[in-house]
Amino acid sequence: MLRLATAVSSYPFYNFRYLKLLSEFSNYFSLYVFAGSKLYDRKVFDKNESYRVYYLFPFLIPRRVRYYIGGMILQTVINLVKPDIVWLFDVAGPLIPLTINRPVVLDIDDPVFDHKDRLSLLKDLYLLRNKRVRKIVVTTDMIKDRFIRFYGIQENKIEVIPNGVDLRLFKPTEIPDDDVVLYYGTLAPHRSRFLVEVIENTLMLKRDVRFMIIGDVPLWFKKYLLEKNLAYNVITPGFMEHDKLPEWIRKAKVCIFTQDISLGGRFSSKLLDYMASGRPIVATDVDESWPVRESSAGIITPIDPKIFAENIITLLEDKKLAKELAEKGIEYARRFSWDEMVKKYIECFMEIIG
Fewest CB atoms less than 10 Å from the CB: which of 40, 57, 130, 182? Predict the structure, then answer.
């Protein structure tokens, strides 16, 4: 069996795409996962028994040490196991200089184009143009185009492999009658600040709507809901394992995507999960809403909380429209099965190995 090695500064590494692919790759390769140190805040991710994680430091160490020094030492460890190919994800450790002596596939799930300093830019240029990096995997054509224009990367070096959806897990169900609206995912400022305004505006139009917000909800968000007397209508169960999400999506009548700035055309996997589950979507008019736009599985709305709220109410009340949009999403999501995405990776790896 061919050997695949990967390295991160710490594990569990909090990225669903990375963890999903690790699990899938373990079915095809002898998989070596090397981590600088161990994190304990996400023990749920450590239960996968299909691959082993080897820790440089089996305890939590200062971030700068595990991120910089740990990354350098891990390269030596990777060379010692003589893998056929090395898969690096989002440059999770700054492997500079790159001393890995095997072909590398660099997976960029969350690219940065607005560098704060010249050193950061030069670091990325060095890594992206390094001859050891045989392929750069990105999730969308928009990101690929930006890599070509911004970094001058050759087109044939970039492979587009989208995010996938587990069609065995996320299955379409009947849209319920209760007026429940769901958002799940990270609650970074570019999503949470608009989301809280959407909740407020929706409840001004229809007071009996309930929201389910799944993720690590910031303290300021909860305080705001209490101050505005909105907390009664908002359920916040906290962070949820990915395989638990379908049971929550089934409770929703409408799912939402509340990003208020464009981030360069990234692929938000939650949109596929919503679609595969048979739920219509309301999303803001940002680059990352392209799957909703392409599939016609929802309503694209301006970055205006009042208009967004009005569109939520439209889908809550218009059952025919909601069903039509949901059916388009179900059909679209079938194109993005994780099984198909993993096949694309295997083809990419085998092409490099020869």
Answer: 40
